[in-house]
């Protein structure tokens, strides 16, 4: 089976490499020649644990190219894994998906299956099918299948190889059996449904997880008011298998390339169809407020940040990735700078990307220690292991004023107190 994958971002590249790992021959296509050259040398253009290792291991099974004619012409399966970024109105920008569909239509010379793996609103697969029909050059049969992915950044490879389910939105028996064959080595249960339901599963799942986070964040806010501890509350809730113990970590809100975009896109889709998704709307609002929660807490100690030396630990939207998309750091740091603070920051992998946005406005440090020296406040935005395992006495020793505002509940309250820290976290009893 010849499989081609359009787009070498998280979805496309990880899918391609995992299919190769399971014995398939895969062609990876991207318009970015720089990325192609890098991948041809065996390097990954994205920071993702285990990915580069598998790219090198499966060198002989993967071809990297920017020649779409070569990639599509005689493929059995073409996977669309290009981005669907957010538009100003909150809807998903489908330009890249449709461009690939058009190129496929103009190129393929034999029957094939086109899989839409990008996260797309309900009805997009139908449009892809229509574009292909309208632009087809050869008289071939091209079937469109919805096959969303559920990988998380930082654990993308293992999430793909050991996925909880493979969702196939198919309109024919033939397409179903070809896809089952492609995934035959994965030993993962299938959910077979129609295309629109498959498209909906992806959004419904992501938005439910976002809701779960916003819910626990609101509970955390209430815990602070009424004097309860969110970690014990989450533990007590999570032991009920109907609720489940995952995605109940309170913090300064969700970020990343998916939850913020997918909640807005589903809300937009509902509104477009004259229906208001009230729960999703609330999740979005709660998240926006949660992101500035630490700044609000800091007002207890300082009226303004003017002239203060501030340490920031963690810039990425979560550990295990260098991705900054919708990270709380991007909301908070500009507020600190605008107010006249001197900001120093450290992140194990996110600093290069942050420097591209803020080259001169903040000082980038080589270690947590260097970041903390002589500071008045320390903000923690990402729970990197290096930060969680950092010795608390060093905060007291290095900072001018050991006020630590922790948005990810990295430390125990008792330990922080013992080490003399003025410590604020999320949803925990003081
Ligand atoms: C998310 C989903 O978890 C994946 O299943 C999905 O496939 C992916 O989006 C996608 O659509 O491509 P991802 O954005 O990589 O994956 O990261 P998550 O681990 O879900 O974290 C998202 C955000 O939620 C992070 O900012 C994280 O800090 C936050 N979070 C997560 C919490 O604040 N609390 C939690 O308990 C869990």
TrEMBL record:
GO biological process, one term: UDP-glucuronate biosynthetic process
Pathway: Nucleotide-sugar biosynthesis; UDP-alpha-D-glucuronate biosynthesis; UDP-alpha-D-glucuronate from UDP-alpha-D-glucose: step 1/1
Alphabetically ordered keywords of this record: NAD, Oxidoreductase
GO molecular function (one): NAD binding
EC number: 1.1.1.22
Catalytic activity: UDP-alpha-D-glucose + 2 NAD(+) + H2O = UDP-alpha-D-glucuronate + 2 NADH + 3 H(+)
Keyword Oxidoreductase: yes
Domain of life: Bacteria
Record: residues binding NAD(+): 30, 35, 84, 119, 261, 325
Binding site for substrate: 202, 247-251, 255, 318
Domain UDP-glucose/GDP-mannose dehydrogenase C-terminal per the UniProt entry, residue ranges: 311-413
Class of the enzyme per the UniProt entry, highest EC level: oxidoreductase
Active site positions, chain numbering: 258 (nucleophile)
Pfam families: UDPG_MGDP_dh (PF00984), UDPG_MGDP_dh_C (PF03720), UDPG_MGDP_dh_N (PF03721)
Keyword Transport: no
PANTHER family the record matches: UDP-GLUCOSE 6-DEHYDROGENASE TUAD, UDP-GLUCOSE 6-DEHYDROGENASE YWQF
Family: Belongs to the UDP-glucose/GDP-mannose dehydrogenase family.
Official protein name in the record: UDP-glucose 6-dehydrogenase
Organism annotation: Paenibacillus etheri
Lineage: Bacteria, Bacillati, Bacillota, Bacilli, Bacillales
């Amino acid at each position: 089976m010849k499989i081609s994958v359009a787009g070498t971002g998280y979805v496309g590249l990880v899918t391609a490499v995992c299919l190769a790992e399971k014995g398939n021959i895969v062609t990876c296509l991207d318009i970015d020649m720089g990325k192609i050259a890098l991948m041809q040398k065996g390097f990954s253009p994205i920071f993702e644990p285990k990915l580069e290792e598998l790219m090198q291991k499966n060198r002989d099974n993967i071809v990297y190219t920017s020649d779409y004619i070569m990639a599509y012409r005689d493929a059995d399966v073409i996977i669309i894994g290009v981005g669907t970024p957010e538009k100003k109105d909150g809807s998903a920008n489908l330009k890249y998906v449709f461009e690939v569909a058009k190129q496929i239509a103009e190129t393929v010379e034999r029957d094939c299956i086109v899989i839409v793996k990008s996260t797309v609103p309900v009805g997009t697969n139908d449009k892809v099918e229509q574009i292909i029909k309208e632009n087809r050059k050869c008289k071939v049969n091209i079937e469109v299948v919805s096959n969303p992915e559920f990988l998380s950044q930082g654990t993308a490879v293992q999430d793909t190889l050991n996925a909880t389910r493979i969702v196939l939105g198919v309109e024919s028996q033939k397409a179903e059996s070809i896809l089952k064959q492609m995934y035959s080595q994965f030993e993962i249960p299938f959910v077979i449904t129609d295309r629109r339901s498959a498209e909906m599963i992806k959004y419904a799942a992501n938005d439910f997880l976002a809701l779960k986070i916003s819910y626990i964040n609101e509970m955390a806010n209430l815990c602070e008011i009424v004097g309860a501890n969110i970690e014990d509350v989450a533990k007590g809730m999570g032991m009920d298998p109907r609720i489940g113990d995952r995605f109940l970590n309170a913090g300064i809100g969700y970020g990343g390339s998916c939850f913020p975009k997918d909640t807005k896109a589903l809300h937009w889709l509902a509104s477009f169809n004259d229906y208001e998704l009230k729960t999703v709307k609330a999740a979005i609002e709660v998240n926006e407020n949660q992101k500035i929660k630490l700044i609000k807490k800091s007002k207890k100690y300082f009226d303004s940040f003017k002239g203060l030396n501030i340490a920031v630990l963690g810039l990425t939207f979560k550990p295990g990735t260098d991705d900054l998309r919708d990270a709380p750091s991007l909301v908070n740091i500009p507020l600190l700078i605008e107010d006249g603070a001197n900001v120093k920051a450290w992140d194990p992998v996110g600093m290069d990307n942050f420097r591209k946005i803020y080259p001169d406005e903040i000082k980038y440090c080589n270690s947590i220690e260097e970041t903390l020296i002589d500071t008045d406040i320390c903000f923690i935005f990402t729970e990197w292991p290096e930060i969680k395992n950092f010795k608390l006495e060093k905060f007291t020793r290095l900072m001018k004023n050991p006020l630590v505002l922790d948005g990810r509940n990295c430390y125990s309250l008792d330990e922080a107190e013992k080490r003399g820290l003025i410590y604020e976290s999320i949803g925990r009893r003081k």
